[in-house]
Amino acid sequence: xxxxxxxxxxxxxxxxxxxxxxxxxxxxxxxxxxxxxxxxxxxxxxxxxxxxxxxxxxxxxxxxxxxxxxxxxxxxxxxxxxxxxxxxxxxxxxxxxxxxxxxxxxxxxxxxxxxxxxxxxxxxxxxxxxxxxxxxxxxxxxxxxxxxxxxxxxxxxxxxxxxxxxxxxxxxxxxxxxxxxxxxxxxxxxxxxxxxxxxxxxxxxxxxxxxxxxxxxxxxxxxxxxxxxxxxxxxxxxxxxxxxxxxxxxxxxxxxxxxxxxxxxxxxxxxxxxxxxxxxxxxxxxxx
Length: 288
Ligand code: GUN
What we know:
Rossmann fold; 2 domains; 6-stranded parallel beta sheet; 3-stranded parallel beta sheet; binds guanine; THF_DH/CycHdrlase_CS; THF_DH/CycHdrlase; Aminoacid_DH-like_N_sf; methenyltetrahydrofolate cyclohydrolase activity; oxidoreductase
């Protein structure tokens, strides 16, 4: 391996320490404790793991964590009523509804019921529109975490060719906007893109967010490029256990790239750290 490892685990620990300092100042000087409400509907195992981790890290940072678990059969009206209650609660500064939601619930309607000021995921149309128009917004946590790693490694990103592989509302689209905001030349590639390998090889920065295990081989990577692997895919490790792999084939990509995020320990921990940072931002804005 010749690439520099972009260590999200270590970087996120620094972000969380800064958040904890800020929380401590808010408490001691203003008697304010930031609060994050996390809503989980149903029993999706991966979502349960994420929500547990979010709650634990929220409490470790000194904030209040409010966990709301609804049965998979909960109605959309029940969920909307809970969101209305959280929107009105002054102790709750951030609201996160864990996705995916069960099929009988309209995710767009639910997300857009969250007050934009408390939308720490940055998923509401209001926040997406602000980001799209280059205005101050709540920025989705995973792309924000990727941007922080890239800025830390490169300094300025201006003029670099960035290829974002994947066009989801959660990662691909906001990631492209953030890179554009940092003056990259941005391409969004996806399953219908022609000459995908060639497009990827044009990237100084390649962000893979497609959710397909080890889809990007080393010969899609430009020598010296920075590879940000957003994928978290659980695979059979062959010994009755499972292990996590990304959307990039780490062994071959790390031979060619200049810098690369590992899976696990790259983008994943940055996402939760950015969620905590967004909750502080929401709390500070709510309190002037
Ligand atoms: N499911 C997978 N990633 C996310 C995320 O960043 N936020 C929420 N709310 N749900 C998710």
